[in-house]
Amino acid sequence: MSDTFIERAIERYAKATGKPLSPHWNEELREVSMPEGVDALAALVGVLGWAPAKRIEDRPRPDQFPLILHDPDTGWAVVQQWDGEEMMALVGSRTSLPYNPDQIFFTLSLPDPLAAGDESAVGVFWRAIKRRKQPLIMAGLATVFANLLTLATSLYSMQLYDRVIPLASFDTLFVLTAGVAFALLLDLCLRSLRALLIEREAQEIDAEVSEFFFARAQAIRLDARPPGIGTMAAQLRGQEQVRQVMSSSSLFLLADLPFALFFIAVIAMIGGKLALVPIISLPIALLFALFLSRIIRKGTDRAQVSGNRKNGMLVESLDATETVKANRGGWFMMGRWNRLVREINHYELPVKKASAVAGSLFSTLQQTAYVGIMGWGAYLAATGQITTGALLACSIISGRINGPLVAQMPNLIVQWGYAKSSLNALDGIMRLPLDTASGAGALRPDHIEGGYDINSAVFAYVGAQRPSLEIDRFAIRPGERVAVIGGIGSGKSTLLKLLSGLYSPTQGSVLLGRLDLSQVAEDIARRHVGYVAQDARLINGTLRDNLVMGLGDVTDPEIMEVARTTKLDNLIAAREDGLALQIQEGGIGLSGGQRSLVGINRLLLSSPKVWLLDEPTASLDQLTETAALDAIDSVLEDDSILIMVTHKIQLLTRFSRIVVMANGKIIRDGPTQDVLRDMMPKSISGKGVKARPPVEGTVTSSLSAKKGTT
Ligand SMILES: Nc1ncnc2c1ncn2[C@@H]1O[C@H](COP(=O)(O)OP(=O)(O)OP(=O)(O)O)[C@@H](O)[C@H]1O
Fold first, then answer.
1. What is the DSSP letter of 519?
2. Which SMART domains does UniProt cross-reference here (predicted)?
3. Bridge partners, residue 610, by sequence
4. Residue partners of 676: CB distance under 8 A and separation at least 6
5. N or C, which end of the chain has less CB nearby within 10 Å?
6. CA nearest to 307, candidates 262, 274, 340
7. Cα–Cα distance measured from residue 546 to residue 594, given in angstroms and rounded to the nearest whole number
């Protein structure tokens, strides 16, 4: 059981600090038993994985508010400010609370996945990695000790050759072997510890980074979103590669590379001049690496771009299978696919060649360094400058420099090449503009009161030659029921998208209740403005998930009550699973009409003040259409606004006002009777009224055209 009082306090705190909470933020708390009293807060943040709350030790200063308060007698609350010397004003309550020293105050840093602001993609990864500095340093230390222990094996060999074999000193052999066995055991433990630490951290870094990019992708302004969804998905997935490379290369820089220098120093101590061999071979390896990485980068960039496009095409062809099959487009798609594959191979070939050559080069370098150590070492040993044991120890240690360090370099270079290309793509996504209202600092009014005001609004889709919408002035008052009609492509859906606040005008403004919609916090706007898009899609999940998505707690009886009014209950009753009916990605499993009905039901459950419906009943039969529209009518309040795009002329009498659109402009706007009378041919509008010719491209023009032909 969870403590609902603390949950309410968190919600008030979020509101007071201007941070958005997800609708289901407290879902995980339902399954755990929370402690009573002041410990509940620590338990709550622990379960949700938030940063721990900070306790304010002394009497809070005015600049520290708002604060979460625990009072031993009254429980949890949120304090807005001091209200006189000894009283405190509470958030969400008109009463003040007297201060007493037994009260405990906390500040809490609520998670904001978009808090990174303007940083680059690589900054997001470094931030996540740096936040886990301690485990990384631990892993680095484990590497250091593990490397030190490898020194033990080389010194062991040295002692065997120099002391044990010449003197047949078996006691020394026993002691040394026992010592080195212990060292090896320690080495095993440290390496395993390092692997475990890195894996755990890698998972957490993955979770943090992927949350950031997922939230970022969600927050991109819809009008700025690149059209290729599959391509963008592939670009976002590039983050996994980047994370992997960044964590392995940070360890490389942190532990392996500095250790190579230490090993050279040890060789110098044991083998004197022999250290010259790694002193020469290591910089050569590093220079080779630098040179190769430049060659490889050119290819990876292009291969990555084509690879992402390939992913986009795969998604598109799977999504549009029906259309492709119905139009025998398989060969066409296959041709495009093969061209892309050839393009990728073309760009990847130099990368593969370079990485293969790099592998051979580094292996030759390793062998040469080995021959250098052994050959020169043999000369030094033969001339008595070093012992045979020292030669053996130097060869083992130089193997440690050339082995793991040099051997992993070609791989790391290629991986970095791809990771840098992924970072470029991610940077491109980071540069896309976000919904103004998705971050902190957006307007968070308690209520939005009033109607719409559009002033000199112009809207053009990304890459479009000309604007799809140009509206000089347009106002809708509370309580109005407006139908938007017009020919195809006349801008009706675009108008609704702007009114919903999901799209922002390129110029001008869309105000709702005198607030610029693009400035209003997203959760507040969504609660106030309900929108059913023309091609409303469902998500993978149950029917219930789809009906209550984003609505918080809605019970099954509430869902069924609404479903009865729209006749969705027929669908629920007809399926064995009822509300648990599984819906596949994109709404597969339901018919087009049923999908629309689910969208309407969702809106009825959320009961917003503003209803924006884009041809919601286009695929409904007449009976269901009437039931659904009646259901909407019955819940509309006097000051609710209803704006519906429709091509169905018989529905127009349900509205008080008609807006007619053509070529992205409003060409007629007035009370239903007036507009109908003006637009209908004489025979329809009634005797004695001189009808104007219908506006081209509107519902009525097609209607009259039809009449003319019969
Ligand atoms: N995503 C988009 N990218 C580019 N142009 C678009 C996009 N969506 C719509 N358009 C263009 O904007 C114009 C207005 O389109 P809109 O969807 O608003 O028309 P509509 O009146 O709702 O049409 P319909 O009755 O066919 O639904 C059209 O010329 C269309 O080609």
1. G
2. AAA
3. 529, 641
4. 652, 658, 685
5. C
6. 340
7. 12
Q: Which helix H or strand E contains 532, and what residues bound it?
A: strand 529-532
State in words which class domain 452-709 has: alpha beta
- Helix orientation angle between 556-566 and 622-635, rounded to the nearest 10 degrees: 120
534 lines ligand 1 (CB under 6 A): yes
CA distance 596 to 392: 78
Interaxial angle between packed helices 170-219 and 229-251, expressed in degrees from 0 to 180 and rounded to the nearest 10: 150
Q: Report which listed range, 69-73, 243-247, 537-541, 639-643, is most confident.
A: 639-643
Dihedral-angle region of residue 92 (phi above 0 means left; psi in -120 to 50 means alpha; beta otherwise)? left
ipTM > 0.90 for the complex = yes
- Atom 2, ligand 1: residue with shortest CA distance: 461
Ligand 1 atom at minimum distance from 647 CA: 25
Which DSSP category does 251 fall into? H
Name the superfamily (CATH) of residues 121-431.
ABC transporter type 1, transmembrane domain (1.20.1560.10)
CATH of domain 4-107: 3.90.70.10
Percentage of residues in the chain having pLDDT higher than 90: 18
Q: Which of 554, 547, 643, 564 is nearest to 602 (CA)?
A: 547
Residue 425 tokens, joined: 């793509």
DSSP count for the chain of H helices, then E strands = 23, 18
The terminus-to-terminus CA distance of the chain in angstroms comes to: 70
Ligand 1 mean position to 495 CA, how many Å? Answer: 10
- How does DSSP classify residue 165? H
Beta strands 96-98 and 657-662 are unpaired
Q: For tokens 């018989």, what's the residue?
A: 650
Question: Where are the extended beta strands (E) located within 387-493?
Answer: 452-459, 469-476, 481-486
For a pocket test of ligand 1, which of 220, 494, 619, 649 has the largest count of ligand atoms closer than 8 A to its C-beta? 494
Two tokens, residue 654: 């349900």
Q: 468 CA to middle of ligand 1, Å? A: 7
Whether 82 is in the pocket of ligand 1, judged by its Cβ within 6 Å, is no
Residue ranges covered by each domain of the chain: 4-107, 121-431, 452-709
Q: How far is CA 160 from CA 173, 179, 669, in A?
A: 7, 13, 100
Residue whose CA lies nearest to ligand 1 atom number 4: 461
**Inter-CA distances, 14 with 40, 80, 110, 526, 631, Å:** 17, 12, 7, 17, 35
From atom 1 of ligand 1, which residue's Cα is the shortest distance away? 461
Angle at 151 between CA 148 and CA 153, to 5 degrees: 130
Tell me the pLDDT tens digit for each residue of 258-271: 778 888 998 999 88
CB 559 within 8 A of CB 579: yes
* Mutation choice for ligand 1 from 492, 644, 660, CB with most ligand atoms inside 8 A: 492
Tell me which residue has its CA closest to atom 19 in ligand 1. Answer: 489
Mutate to test the pocket of ligand 1, among 225, 461, 695 (most ligand atoms within 8 A of CB): 461
pLDDT in tens, 132-188: 777 777 777 777 777 777 788 888 888 888 888 888 888 889 998 998 898 888 888
Task: Quote helix, strand, coil % in the chain, to nearest 5.
Answer: 60, 15, 25
**Cβ(468) – ligand 1 distance below 6 Å:** yes
Shortest-distance Cα residue to atom 16 of ligand 1: 491
Contact (CB, 8 A) for 387 and 359: no
Residue 492 CB less than 6 A away from ligand 1? yes
Q: In what order do the strands lie in the sheet with 87-90?
A: 54-56, 104-107, 67-71, 75-82, 87-90, 96-98
Q: Does the beta carbon of 389 sit less than 6 angstroms from any atom of ligand 1?
A: no
